[in-house]
Design brief:
There is one protein chain. This protein is mostly helical. It has a single domain (about 10-70), classed as Helix Hairpins. Helices cover about 70% and strands about 0% of the residues.
Length: about 80
């Protein structure tokens, strides 16, 4: 089995690529049971890492969106042209 760098240091894109490779290897069904279990375990860790990266990105987007919205109370005080 090829080892991957520390999962926590992987970007979302690299982790997803590794996860796709793991799934493909498992779907082929030609690996010994022990190796399949190792790859499955690695895949679960990669999946969790990807999910955490997506949550982080979602929170950043939410913060940016909220930061750039005008409060409704201020909008009502702004004079119309």
């Amino acid at each position: 089995m090829t080892m991957i760098p520390n999962i926590e240091t992987l970007s979302f894109e690299n982790a997803l690529k590794e996860l796709e490779t793991s799934v493909k290897q498992l779907e082929e069904g030609s690996l010994p049971l022990d190796e399949s279990i190792e790859i499955f375990e690695k895949g679960m860790l990669l999946s969790k890492h990807c999910e955490e990266k997506l949550k982080e990105a979602s929170l950043k987007i939410e913060k940016i969106t909220l930061k750039n919205q005008k409060p409704e109370s201020l909008e009502s005080l702004t004079p119309s042209s």
